[in-house]
Each structure stands twice: as C-alpha cells, then as structure tokens.
Amino acid sequence: MTTPTPPTSTERGNEPELPLHTPSAASLSVAVLIALIAWLAFAAQTDITIGRLAARGYGVFDALERMSSYLTNLTVLLCAISFTCVALRPPTPIGRFFRTPTVVTAIVVYMVFVGIAYNVLLRHLWTLSGYRALVNESLHTVLPVLSALYWLLFVPRFHLTWRRALLWLVYPLAYIVMTMLRGSLSDFYPYPFIDVLELGYTRVLINETLLVGAFVALMAVFAAINHRRPPRPREPAAARDMRQDAR
C-alpha cells in the first residue's frame, strides 16, 4: 500500500455518504440494479437450497443454516443491504454506515474476491444449466463485475488509513474461524480447499493462509487505485448545510 498524500481538509472531515450530494442518474441507476440483482439472486439461492435440502429430509432452518455456511451467500447479502442503502439513502445511522465509501469499498472488495475465488477454484467442479446456472452466474460473475464497475465510476477518493484497511480483514478472518468451528462440530466444510476431513488441518491452514494473502493483495489494488484518484472537490457550503439539515 503506497504512502498516501496528505488529505485535504474535506477528506479529513466526515467521510461522505454515497451517492454524493448531487448524485447522477447513472450512479443511482447502477446502485438500484446491483441491489435488485443481489436481492433476487439471494432469494433464488435460498429457494434452491431449501428445495434441495427438503428433498433430503431437512427442514427450513437446516437450509438457512447451510446457506450461512457459504461466503458467497453472506457477501451477497451484505452487497444487497449496502447498495439498497446507497440507492434509497435512508437517514438512519445504519443506512449512513452502509453507504460510506470505506464500507462500500470493503463490500466491493469482498464481492470481487468471491467472484475471483469461484471462477479460479470452483467453477470446474460442476456444470449447471438453466435456472440454477443463471442464479450461479448472477452470484459469482454479474454482481462482482457490476460492483467493481460502480466503485470505479462512482465512489470518490477517500482518506484510507492502515487502521481502516486492516478492519476490512475482520470479515474474512471471522468467516474462517466460524467455518472451522462449525466444521469441527458438524463435519461439514462448504468448500473443498478447507475440508479438514479430506485434507487435514495442516493443508487447510496453508490454503487459508494463501487465501488471506490473496485477499490482502486485492485490498492493496483497491487502495492503490483510491490513492491515485484526484481529490474530490469541496462540497459547496450551501449544499452541505442543506444536506445536514435534511438529517
């Protein structure tokens, strides 16, 4: 991660929310599209999972528990929530949190990582068709690409500290820890490269270390692009006052 240039007075202040105070029709349209695809794909995957496990004699709660085992499903849910907040701009603390550039960027990094990991490590394991193929491509290709496109086009430069960047690691590390704990209790591991029963703990630990390293490298790419962007223009005082009054 390169050494950042000194932040402007605007960058040192409160982090802007997305979309900015004068959002373009394009930025809102893309945010709506991403949120819509994310919710529909998540709902469709939920339906598929419930139906598949019901055929094996499991209940709805078993299916929901199984869904929460997959990083893709959790990340798509985060993506749906974040871009819904960007599109609708709810004036609530949680709504403002999910549309700050730091949080949106972190979720986009998670989404892109999911897409890369699936297409590099998992795509060759099975062949899907029809409805399931459409849902699968929406989760692992369409959403990562659209999220990255939105970030490149509409997320302004923001002041990224080492502390903020390191906080991005909480989500993937927490997922790894929880997956290992759940696997030790249930003997279910959602991905073959972290299957302790097949590979053993040593090999799984190496694989997880490589995955975290790849994630850090992806973080560095986004941080470098953010660093090289021109500083965002100062918001006019009148517009800033009107936006604060609206809260």
Automatic annotation (TrEMBL):
Residues annotated as transmembrane: 28-50, 70-88, 100-121, 165-185, 205-225
InterPro entries attached to this UniProt entry: Pr6Pr-like (IPR049713)
Location of region: Disordered: 1-20
Top-level taxon: Bacteria
Keywords: Membrane, Transmembrane, Transmembrane helix
Keyword rRNA processing: no
Protein's recorded name: FAR-17a/AIG1-like protein
